[in-house]
Write a structure and sequence with these properties.
Elements lengths: L2 H13 L2 H8 L3 H15 L4 E4 L2 E4 L1 H27 L5 E7 L1 H6 L1 H11 L3 E7 L2 H9 L5 E5 L8 E13 L12 E2 H5 L2 E5 L5 H9 L5 E6 L2 H9 L5 E4 L11 E6 L3 E7 L8 H13 L7
Parallel strand pairs: 3-4, 3-5, 7-11, 8-9
Antiparallel strand pairs: 1-2, 5-12, 6-10, 6-11, 6-12
Helix pairs in contact: 1-2, 1-3, 1-4, 2-3
């Protein structure tokens, strides 16, 4: 099988359509179909199922896709090394990130990086912690923003310590002579909570302080959580980074005991990054070193 065959398979899997994959790759749908058929014949099993709504990976296809991604990423790394030896800075870097990292850092990161390295293309994939970890492990992204608690067995370089805050409606009754809110003040409150895959650090704080919370509202999106709190449906715990430029009228309190989420860059193997990947990775660490608060 050729690299083109692998690229065809990957693109069809991502797009869920022969026609869409053909448009992306600049090939005809019949060429796409022929490449997949030839691949399946050589492998001895089907990698895609076809139906009226499009195509989907078979169980075999799901298992070999990470290996196909690894082959394509290795070829990209080789091309970048060759370009580096020629004195060029080229290539494509795929970055995974969670919501608040995407809204706070990614726009500035892309602009400042492209000013220095205009020939390096950046692709951004936004998702939950679980999404980013999956993308890294399966070679879909080169590295990703994660919290230390969500990285699992992935190597991670921490560069930001983000305080967790208690967010309340404006009519929340509290002893205003004290700046911080205590566990006891939060204990009997109704909470708006997010799924653990969205922010495990918050769930860890709730568990470690024996906060057996009451809630009817389980959301994923940060902004949805804040809107629910602003509307009086409960309180929540949010990282400070999320609360930057929030347009809704809520109160913010530091907590006692305090808590933080540690944010870093995670990848499969920091010692074997492609040149363009390493360049962006180092750029992010350097760009935000002034925010380091460890």
């Amino acid at each position: 099988m050729t690299l083109l065959t692998y690229q065809v398979f990957k693109t069809v899997a991502e797009m869920g359509s022969f026609h869409k994959a053909a448009d992306v790759l600049g090939l005809t749908p019949s060429a796409i179909s022929h490449a997949i058929s030839a691949m399946e014949k050589e492998l001895g099993f089907a990698v895609l199922t076809r139906n009226k709504s499009g195509v989907a990976l078979t169980n075999y296809g799901e298992h070999i896709l990470p290996y196909v991604n690894a082959v394509l990423n290795s070829d990209e790394s080789l091309q970048q090394v060759v370009a580096e030896y020629k004195g060029l800075k080229t290539g494509t870097v795929k970055v995974g990130c969670f919501s608040s990292a995407c809204t706070t850092w990614i726009p500035g990161m892309i602009k400042s990086f492209e000013e220095k390295y205009p020939a390096i293309k950046i692709e951004v994939f936004e998702g939950t912690y679980d999404d980013v970890r999956y993308w890294i492990k399966n070679g879909i992204v080169d590295f990703g923003f994660l919290s230390a608690s969500s990285a699992g067995d992935l190597p991670i370089e921490i560069f930001y310590r983000d305080p967790l805050l208690c967010i309340t409606p404006t009519d929340f009754e509290k002893d205003e002579t004290k700046e911080k809110i205590t566990i006891d003040e939060m204990r009997d409150q109704h909470f708006v909570v997010q799924r653990e895959s969205t922010d495990a650090d918050i769930q860890n704080y709730l568990r470690s302080n024996s906060l057996d919370i009451q809630t009817s509202y389980h959301v994923v999106d940060d902004l949805s959580t804040i809107i629910m709190v602003a509307s009086g449906f409960g309180i929540c715990i949010m990282p400070e980074l999320v609360m930057k430029d929030i347009p809704y009228d809520v109160k913010q309190y530091h907590m006692d005991p305090p808590a933080y989420r540690e944010i870093g860059l995670a990848c499969l193997n920091p010692a074997f990054m492609a040149p363009a990947v390493r360049t962006l990775y180092q750029h992010v660490i350097k760009e935000y070193s002034n925010t380091l608060n460890l």
